């Protein structure tokens, strides 16, 4: 079937080429629609392949960086990030006259993204459909080829850069060992999965000097004494769950962003999969770019900076998670408050402190606020495809604050993980914004 | 022309009918059509939005079937239970014709969701009553348990509430038995919880009774009342929400003549083994007597399979046999989840059928993998009976689930979110998407020595079905057991047994007991013929939700004569009946036989063993799986070290025991009293950090005093680590030792074996130190070493000078020096994991050259222990190997070897050990897709789904060839322990040890040349979860005489499941003993001649 489609579009293409030798194709891609669609597909593949939130952030960041580097090569109003990012070298790309840069940018995105996921067929299918559509719109064959080739050239540079971030080596690092010490994290029902990515702090950061640069405040000292600070924090989660109103539940479910929720009914088990927190914020980046009328370069810039913020947030947050190794509310409450209690959201498989969603959302939200201005009418439809409603916000900060508190409503985090997590994320966002730039004028200022 | 074609037609017809006839004649079982039998019961089930697999976890568990002669006309009748259809009672009219009398009899089940059924004479009037279990008052389901009391006129009255047995809840099955031996039948009611089994509770929760839990009811008939009393709490029966009871059986496990109970539980909860305390209470004793059980235990059956008169336990689970289904189905718990369950207090459980073989004293060895009965897919009802009357009991297993929830693609990839569907639509889609596979049931034929072969097809029992409950009964009184199965969405199967055509003999026994238990439930009947005995227990509930009739049919094979039949009546009396004929049906009446009293077989003389006040304390902190996800077994639990010698020259043998990490070794001096006294050696304390796994005494510095060498392992540290350095301690002659740190070169490997010999002939003892594993890199070769003694106990590493290599000899577990070929020069013989037996001969230019010896080419195995001895007394040394054995998922033969491919397949700096094994002629990876992805994430790219992964049939389909070609490949051909007998021409011929030696890995052996007796010890719990612990080998001694092995029983205090690492002979106070050093326990003793 696909074969026939390809033949058909090939025929069409030949006809198009032979009939209309000189088509003006410069407006075939203007805005970020193609890039956003490609990103949506990557999100679908990330879900299918079951990538965890930190790894998903890595996938988004390198793919987006590739798309952005073509934009930077296309327009002197943008500055390459290569040379600014840790471990990268300043690289000058010289696209030939023939290259249609918006297409090259898209090609770079597909190329790098596909290299980072497992289900390549799913990506290729989407790419081929997009290419066929673009060819139909009149991009000549030689231009097309040159553009793809240039996209690949930039993509190869990004791949070479990404290959040195220690990710590949980290696949063989020891799995997490449950210490069994009082107050430390234990696997949680129903799947009792092992803690994911215990060595994520060994992944190279893009901008932070180290994973521990923005070490958040430690959680309150562990205690099972009623009345202690820790007990109260757990009791607060429990009480909030017991007394939760509709609005709070809606907020919790809206921001659930659990890429792997295991449902178990007796012998029947099935995984329900949703976008990751990073996927949600990349989607917001896409929605905002469109709403603000960004062109393809501005969209690529938004994606790249949001992706970098998310990546740094997860590295920083995971560094703290395996430093404090804190017990989840579900475990604590079941052991010391109510054996039967089950949180509204399924507890994800890693230690509690700080809240990943809080750190990532505030880092990404801050970045978007810098790009678009914090006051922004955001109509967040990211979760519609997953059966959830649209939510509206008046600012990015309103959105990230809600994302953060949603974890408390969901029963999977104590308040300190949220409060300290938001501070951690904002510090990361600010630091990134100060230390790298996509704009020549700001670059001078930053350095 | 016309005639010709007619002739052809006739010929064709003749041919056809002839073939058909032959085919029928050759099959043992014949499925009778319902038109013939009149049995048209069909347990049809409809999934609805209100009630389905997501609403009720046991929606597809199906119904049961009970057999019994309800009108005492000599023909066994049948009762089927249905879930959404009426139950059915069929009256046997003879000649396989049945009449449905359900409505007339008043036993429909009243539209309840019926589960189990059993027939028993509850009120002691000599008529079988019917007890039906139901699921009651749950969501849209109404029901309660029914007790249909037989009115004697083929009608019944439900008197459950009058008798106090009208339980409402989630009942699976009941069993009637006289637990207090007061002459009436009491009832154990097996129930199941429905409370989210996926959320683990502490195992101690089982001590909290719940009103919906299992129950024990005492019959008050003997007390003169027609009712039952709930005695659950005072009886010691667990009755908690943890119980997901799917099987219950009664037997006497320990031959104390009191009925015991086995309960199989689904999910996380252990199975229960209740030992009757003879005082109205039970003691749950599973963890004391059984090493591991099925995880999702379904039905069970309890009966003798090996002809020793003691009942085995067989439980079903859901392991598929077909490699394709196996590779895409949920398997064992991931190691981390397994650990959590252990922390919650649960026993070891594995997803496979389990066969617990009774060792004669109520202890069990688990042998399902050895027996070949571990996999029969999603299984329900096991029935142990002699299907072909050949004298050996076989096992029939029903299987099948309409919707298969353990399909991994369903679990991981099925849920595509459609935001527009309602919750109800979503649920329906989910159920619709559950895959469906219809398979045949299994008929495991007992071929002797506890080995079984599936004969479902050859025996005509291979019709695909979803079969749940099952029973057997001699429906046509021809002396063999016919088979009846209750199927979902398909007519019930009634199979006629044609054993009567086989020429095999039989004997049928019906008992006539007195009082309220006229059918003699709880009697043990043993038929003696020559040196054979055939033993059965009269019961009712067996298998899954089903029950058999009280008539016993014994297959006698070609035994022509019955010497006697012993009956042990339920109340304790024993009688012997003589002059009984084969191929006859008899009724044995209590009081008509000759009474007898059995003398207690208990050995009253308790052996008093010596004692050493020491305990090996293994650390559990090293979890090798965290570091290398695919490692098949642990190397961190190989201690303790054990060495025996007279170190203070007082003529008494002394003992060194080497401790685990952080546990010092201790030298014990034997005193003339036979007591052992520890000698203070501070240096042992200082070096306690090292994990001692092997030790030997010898005089290394030639001062006439015993020195001690200790080898360290533990698989925790990288090569060269200080704590891996082996150590020599020089003896002072008084039990104290001096440590000279640089006596040995600082090598630092996981030492596994020390072989001592003066290889250069200079008078100083030299050393070969074998190493087993590189920490973090299973499959890589560690460095073994040949160390030459400079004369004073100082050693130099001369490995490369002598052996021409740096010592990378592979994974070595055992090495010895011995003169195999009789030239008075000793060879170095070594072996290990993925290693053949390798012989290095000393050449004239002082080199040890590996020599190929005919007969050892196919010896590669997982050999842990190697000994050289002339077993058959022909003057030629033979080679004994202690190998992995046969009780493992890993199987190997020359034709179908096991393979290790070792390479860094994904170039991430960590080598990956991939084990491939043959399943049904496909060479498939042993690791699950999930496990492989953890080690090699790229597998996800190569094999996008479990279905894709499951279609792999050779290594090239897992990885592209270039990657595979670069790998080191190691085969294993032989996993059985045994002897390589040396032939006249110097070649070797392998003979495996007797089959019961193959029940576990053999870790150490001792050959007593005077007594011509071999002592063996083993067991190993350090296998990865999906291999499972193998602690099924009790200590054994075998005498070699007249060309074969005879088992001998010696007095010993070694527990059956203990993991012995080393055994050494020792003389204590003039008595000869073996000292056995176990991992994580105290030293044990065996008295030897």
TrEMBL record, chain A:
InterPro entries given in the database record: PAP2/HPO_sf, V-haloperoxidase
SUPFAM superfamilies named in the record: Acid phosphatase/Vanadium-dependent haloperoxidase
PANTHER family: PEROXIDASE-RELATED (PTHR34599), TRAF-TYPE DOMAIN-CONTAINING PROTEIN (PTHR34599:SF2)
Protein name: Vanadium-dependent haloperoxidase
From TrEMBL, chain B:
ASPIC/UnbV domain mapped to chain residues: 520-586
Keywords: Signal
Pfam families, A to Z: FG-GAP_3, UnbV_ASPIC
Record-given protein name: VCBS repeat-containing protein
Record organism: Algoriphagus pacificus
Phylogenetic lineage: Bacteria, Pseudomonadati, Bacteroidota, Cytophagia, Cytophagales
């Amino acid at each position: 079937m696909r074969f026939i489609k390809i033949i058909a579009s090939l025929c069409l293409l030949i006809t198009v080429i032979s009939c209309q030798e000189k088509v003006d194709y410069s407006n075939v891609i203007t805005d970020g629609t193609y890039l956003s669609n490609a990103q949506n597909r990557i999100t679908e593949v990330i879900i299918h392949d079951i990538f965890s939130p930190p790894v998903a952030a890595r996938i988004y960041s390198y793919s987006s960086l590739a798309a952005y580097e073509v934009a930077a090569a296309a327009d002197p109003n943008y500055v390459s990030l290569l040379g600014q990012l840790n471990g990268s070298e300043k690289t000058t790309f010289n696209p030939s006259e023939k290259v249609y840069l918006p297409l090259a940018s898209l090609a770079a995105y597909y190329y790098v993204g596909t290299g980072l996921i497992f289900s390549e067929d799913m990506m290729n299918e989407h790419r081929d459909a997009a290419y066929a559509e673009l060819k139909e719109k009149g991009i000549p064959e030689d231009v097309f080829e040159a553009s793809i080739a240039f996209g690949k050239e930039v993509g190869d540079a990004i791949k070479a850069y990404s290959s040195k971030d220690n990710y590949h080596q980290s696949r063989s690092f020891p799995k997490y060992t449950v210490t069994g010490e009082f107050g430390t994290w234990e696997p949680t029902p129903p799947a009792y999965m092992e803690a994911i990515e215990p060595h994520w702090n060994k992944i190279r950061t893009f901008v932070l000097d180290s994973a521990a640069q923005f070490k958040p405040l430690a959680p309150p000292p562990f205690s099972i004494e009623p009345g202690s600070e820790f007990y109260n924090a757990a009791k607060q989660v429990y009480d909030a769950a017991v007394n939760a109103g509709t609005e709070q539940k809606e907020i919790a479910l809206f921001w659930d962003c659990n890429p792997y929720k295991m449902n178990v009914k007796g012998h029947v088990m099935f995984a329900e999969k949703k976008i990751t927190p990073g996927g949600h914020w990349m989607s917001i980046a896409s929605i905002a770019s469109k709403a603000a009328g960004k062109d393809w370069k501005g969209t690529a810039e938004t994606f790249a900076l949001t992706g970098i913020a998310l990546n740094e947030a997860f590295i920083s947050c995971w560094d703290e998670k395996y430093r404090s190794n804190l017990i989840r509310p579900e475990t604590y409450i079941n052991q010391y408050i109510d054996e039967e209690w089950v949180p509204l959201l399924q507890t994800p498989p890693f230690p509690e402190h700080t809240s990943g969603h809080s750190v990532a959302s505030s880092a990404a939200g801050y970045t978007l606020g810098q790009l678009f201005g914090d006051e922004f009418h955001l109509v967040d439809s990211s979760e519609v495809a997953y059966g959830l409603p649209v939510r509206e916000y008046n600012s990015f900060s309103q959105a990230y604050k809600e994302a953060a508190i949603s974890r408390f409503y969901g029963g999977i985090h104590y308040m300190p993980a949220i409060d300290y997590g938001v501070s951690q994320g904002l510090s990361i966002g600010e630091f990134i914004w100060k230390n790298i730039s996509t704009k020549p004028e700001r670059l001078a200022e930053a350095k | 022309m016309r005639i010709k074609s007619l002739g052809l037609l006739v010929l064709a017809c003749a041919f056809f009918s002839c073939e058909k006839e032959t085919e029928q004649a050759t099959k043992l079982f014949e499925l009778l059509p319902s038109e013939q039998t009149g049995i048209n019961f069909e347990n049809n089930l409809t999934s609805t939005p209100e009630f389905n697999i997501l609403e009720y976890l046991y929606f597809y568990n199906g119904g049961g079937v009970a057999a019994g002669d309800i009108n005492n006309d000599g023909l066994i009748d049948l009762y089927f239970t249905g879930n959404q259809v009426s139950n059915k009672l069929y009256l046997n009219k003879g000649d396989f014709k049945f009449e449905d009398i359900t409505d007339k009899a008043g036993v429909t089940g009243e539209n309840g969701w019926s589960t189990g059924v059993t027939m028993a004479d509850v009120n002691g009037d000599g008529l079988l009553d019917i007890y039906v279990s139901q699921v009651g008052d749950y969501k849209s389901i109404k029901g309660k348990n029914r007790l249909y009391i037989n009115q004697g006129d083929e009608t019944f009255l439900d008197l459950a509430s009058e008798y106090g047995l009208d339980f409402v809840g989630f009942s699976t099955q009941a069993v009637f038995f006289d637990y207090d031996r007061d002459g009436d039948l009491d009832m154990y009611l097996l129930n199941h919880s429905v409370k989210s089994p996926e959320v683990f509770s502490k195992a101690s929760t089982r001590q909290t009774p719940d009103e919906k839990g299992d129950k024990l009811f005492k019959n008050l008939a003997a007390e003169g009342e027609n009712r039952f009393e709930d005695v659950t709490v005072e009886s010691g029966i667990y009755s908690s929400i943890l119980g997901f009871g799917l099987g219950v059986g009664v037997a006497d496990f320990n031959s104390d003549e009191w009925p015991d109970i086995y309960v199989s539980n689904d999910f996380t909860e252990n199975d229960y083994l209740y030992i009757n305390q003879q005082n109205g209470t039970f003691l749950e004793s599973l963890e004391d007597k059984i090493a591991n059980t099925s995880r999702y235990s379904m039905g069970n059956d309890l009966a003798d399979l090996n002809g020793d008169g003691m009942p085995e336990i067989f439980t079903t689970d859901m392991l598929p046999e077909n490699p394709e289904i196996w590779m895409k189905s949920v398997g064992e718990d991931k190691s981390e989840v397994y650990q959590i369950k252990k922390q919650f207090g649960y026993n070891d459980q594995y997803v496979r059928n389990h066969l617990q073989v009774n060792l004669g004293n109520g202890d069990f060895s688990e042998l399902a993998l050895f027996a070949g009965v571990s996999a029969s897919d999603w299984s329900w009802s096991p029935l142990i009976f002699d299907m072909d009357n050949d004298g050996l009991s076989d096992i029939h297993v029903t299987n099948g689930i309409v919707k298969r929830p353990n399909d991994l693609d369903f679990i991981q990839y099925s849920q595509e979110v459609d935001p527009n569907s309602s919750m109800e639509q979503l649920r329906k889609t989910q159920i619709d998407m559950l895959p469906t596979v219809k398979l045949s049931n299994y008929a495991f034929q007992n071929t002797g020595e506890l080995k079984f072969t599936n004969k479902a097809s050859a025996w005509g029992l291979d019709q695909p079905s979803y079969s749940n409950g099952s029973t057997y009964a001699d429906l046509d009184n021809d002396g063999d057991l016919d088979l009846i199965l209750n199927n979902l969405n398909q007519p019930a199967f009634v199979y006629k047994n044609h054993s009567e055509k086989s020429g095999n003999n039989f004997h049928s026994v019906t008992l006539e007991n007195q009082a309220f238990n006229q059918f003699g439930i709880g009697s043990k009947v043993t038929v003696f013929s020559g040196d054979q005995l055939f033993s059965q227990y009269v019961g009712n509930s067996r298998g899954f939700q089903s029950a058999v009739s009280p008539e016993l049919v014994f297959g006698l094979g070609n035994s022509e004569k019955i010497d006697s039949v012993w009956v042990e009546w339920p109340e304790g009396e024993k009688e012997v009946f003589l002059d009984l004929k084969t191929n006859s049906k008899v009724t044995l009446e209590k009081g008509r036989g000759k009474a007898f009293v059995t003398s207690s077989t208990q050995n009253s003389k308790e052996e008093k063993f010596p004692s050493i006040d020491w305990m090996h304390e293994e650390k559990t902190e090293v979890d090798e799986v965290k570091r290398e996800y695919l490692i098949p077994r642990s190397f961190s639990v190989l201690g303790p070290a054990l060495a025996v010698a007279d170190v203070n020259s007082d003529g008494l043998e002394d003992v060194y025991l080497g401790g685990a990490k952080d546990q010092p070794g201790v030298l014990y001096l034997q005193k003339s009293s036979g007591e052992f006294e520890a000698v203070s050696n501070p240096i042992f304390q200082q070096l306690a950090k090292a994990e001692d796994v092997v030790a030997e005494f010898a005089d290394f510095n030639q001062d006439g005093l015993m020195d001690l060498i200790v080898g360290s392992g533990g698989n925790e540290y990288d090569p060269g680590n200080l704590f891996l350095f082996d150590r020599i301690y020089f003896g002072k002659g008084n039990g104290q030792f001096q440590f000279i740190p640089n006596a040995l070169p600082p090598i630092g490997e996981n030492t596994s074996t020390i072989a001592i010999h003066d290889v250069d002939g200079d008078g100083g003892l030299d050393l070969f130190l074998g190493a087993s594993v590189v920490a973090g890199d299973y499959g890589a070769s560690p460095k073994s070493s040949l160390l030459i003694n400079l004369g004073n106990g100082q050693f130099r590493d001369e490995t490369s000078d002598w052996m021409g290599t740096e010592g990378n000899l592979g994974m070595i577990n055992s090495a010895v020096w011995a003169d195999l070929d009789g030239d008075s020069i000793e060879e170095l013989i070594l072996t290990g994991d993925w290693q053949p037996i390798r012989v290095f001969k000393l050449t004239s230019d002082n080199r040890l050259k590996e020599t190929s010896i005919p007969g050892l080419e196919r010896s590669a195995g997982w050999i842990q222990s190697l000994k050289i001895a002339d077993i058959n007394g022909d003057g030629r040394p033979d080679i004994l190997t202690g190998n992995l054995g046969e009780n493992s998922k890993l199987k190997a033969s020359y034709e179908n070897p096991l393979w290790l491919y070792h390479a860094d397949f994904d170039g991430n700096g960590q080598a990956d050990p991939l084990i491939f094994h043959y399943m049904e002629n496909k060479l498939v990876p042993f690791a699950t897709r999930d496990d492989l992805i953890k080690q090699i994430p790229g597998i996800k790219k190569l094999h996008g789904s479990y279905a894709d992964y499951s279609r792999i049939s050779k290594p090239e389909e897992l990885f592209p060839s270039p990657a595979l070609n670069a790998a080191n490949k190691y085969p294993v051909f032989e996993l059985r322990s045994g002897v390589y007998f040396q032939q006249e021409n110097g070649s070797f011929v392998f003979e495996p040890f007797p089959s019961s030696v193959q029940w576990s890995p053999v870790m150490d052996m001792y050959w007593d040349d005077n007594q011509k007796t071999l002592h063996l010890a083993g067991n190993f719990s350090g296998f990865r979860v999906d291999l499972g612990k193998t602690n099924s080998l009790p200590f054994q001694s075998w005498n070699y005489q007249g060309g074969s092995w005879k088992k001998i029983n010696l007095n010993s205090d070694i527990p059956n499941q203990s993991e012995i690492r080393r055994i050494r002979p020792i003389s204590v106070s003039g008595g000869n003993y073996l000292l056995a050093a176990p991992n994580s326990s105290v030293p044990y003793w065996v008295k030897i001649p």
